[in-house]
Amino acid sequence: MKVGDLVIFESDVPESQRFWTGEYVRTGIVVAELPGDHIEAPAVSVLWASGDLTERCPPRMLEVISESR
């Protein structure tokens, strides 16, 4: 996963309950790669379509839907 990749985050909340919990499928773009260290695993910063920024998101929670060149 690298800067410029288009990613989605899909909640594990059942679809029928997402309205009530506020969980939904989010689409965003990776804006920074964050290296890991002896305490934290590598992560990425994601700018979501809603305008929110997640500063440290584990790549295992994301799916790349379009890779940058």
Q: Short description, anyone?
A:
This protein has 69 residues and is mainly β. It has one helix at residues 18-21; strands spanning 6-9, 26-34, 43-48, 53-57, 63-66.
Task: Describe the protein's topology.
Elements: E1 6-9, H1 18-21, E2 26-34, E3 43-48, E4 53-57, E5 63-66
Description of the molecule:
- This protein has 69 residues and is mainly β.
- It has one helix spanning 18-21; strands at residues 6-9, 26-34, 43-48, 53-57, 63-66.
- Strands 4-3-2-1-5 form a five-stranded antiparallel beta sheet, with no helix packed on it.
Calculate Rg over CA atoms.
13 Å
Helices and strands, in order, run as EHEEEE
Low-pLDDT regions: none
Mean pLDDT figure: 83
Order of strands across the main sheet = 4-3-2-1-5
Q: What characteristic shape results from the CA principal axes?
A: globular
Into which percentage range does the β-strand content fall? 35-45%
Q: From the helix content, strand content and strand pairing, which structural class follows?
A: mainly beta
Overall strand count:
5
Number of helices: 1
Biggest sheet details: 5 strands, antiparallel
Termini Cα gap = 12 Å
List keywords for this structure.
6% helix; 1 helix; five-stranded antiparallel beta sheet; 69 residues; globular; mainly beta
